[in-house]
Amino acid sequence: MDEVNCRRLTGATAIVTGAAHGIGVAYARRLAGEGARLVVADLDGDAAEKVAASLREEGREAIAVQADIADEASVGRLATAALDAFGTITVLVNNAAMFSVVPMSRASFDAIEPAEWDRLMEVNVKGPWLTTRAVAPAMRERGYGKIVNISSGTALKGSATRIHYVTAKAAILGFTRTLARELGGDGITVNCVAPGSTLSEENPDEATVSRRAERLGDRALKRVQMPADLVGAVAFLASPDSDFVTGQTLVVDGGSVMH
Prior knowledge:
Rossmann fold; 7 strands; Sc_DH/Rdtase_CS; oxidoreductase activity; seven-stranded parallel sheet; oxidoreductase; single chain; alpha/beta
């Protein structure tokens, strides 16, 4: 990492949802490494505390907050905890979603149960909306903020046997653009990262590794994508380097989708 930019987030407070597992841990660690005070938010409170404790052991400032992003009261407590601990909220990374840690069915569109469709929409679409609504007042008060949403490359090209997930991630694209219009006057940028298929599972089995390797065929860069490939994009959109960038989607997938 460029030494000039390695402390771009000094003095900032960053909330990362879904930060106790997978790619969320990588996002949290990168933002903390750039100087941010971290709020590690996750449905799994014990795992969130382990991540926060590991950051504190490295000399970072971090707290853990157990949070269900689909619950309005829970995300309200998350925002309050961040403000009580650090006084400000500068960055929100809307990362939490149903995918692997909170699993979803990989089935055809007519085999998915309506209850699972509703739950996935509640978490993957309603969740970022509720969380953003909870933190926006603190950002508006300061006249500055960074919201980074996580979509998926599947929203740009489609992906069979997970229509509810792809639909939800496509919704995040429109959510990002509309929110950028609404919050721009408050000095708040809203952008999106669309990852490709990433080996984000903890201790993946052979089937998972093989499934990720199958995604190499349409990539310009012929290797498996790892969480480390995504953190630079999120850090850029969370930092002052992107202060005049808003409403944009940055695809990070090794050149599978080009637009």
